[in-house]
Design brief:
The chain has helices at 11-24, 32-51, 59-70, 74-81, 84-91, 99-109, 113-117. The chain is mainly alpha-helical and 135 residues long.
Length: 135
């Protein structure tokens, strides 16, 4: 049985819409059921964006993820972050990213600047060192 298509304002509305999406899943695009599926998916997306926002990743986790995606090593990060020691300090959360590092990581690896600007989770045993230079 089809539910009435209306704005999703509560968890109960969300559950009902999800049940309907499961029923409609696989409907051909351009059919009444396919159109209904598209509309419900849009409504669900809007509701979830407002009520269940996804946190942006930690900057170090984002760097590690991109390294894994692109098959990069720590050595590959040296032109972007600095010396081998500096790369190690950053990846081990003992040093924060400088503006210069953020700019280079964003430009070369395509990691969103908004992600890189976030304060990283601290390493156990102390605060990350701040850098004053562009490296």
């Amino acid at each position: 049985m089809a539910i009435e298509v209306k704005p999703i304002r509560s968890a109960a509305d969300h559950r009902a819409a999800m049940t309907e999406v499961k029923r409609l899943w696989g409907s051909k695009s351009g059919t009444p059921d396919g159109d209904r599926l598209d509309v419900l998916a849009t409504l669900i997306d809007a509701y979830e964006a407002q009520h269940e926002p996804i946190d942006r990743p930690d900057p170090i986790e984002a760097i590690r993820f991109r390294m894994e995606q692109q098959g990069l090593t720590r050595k590959d990060l040296e032109p972007l972050i600095g010396t081998r020691t500096r790369v190690s300090e950053v990846l081990n959360r003992k040093r924060t990213l400088s503006i210069g590092m953020i700019r280079r990581l964003h430009a070369e690896l395509g990691i969103a600047a908004e992600v890189l600007i976030r304060a990283p989770r601290l390493a156990t045993g102390g605060r990350p060192q701040r850098t004053s230079r562009g490296r």
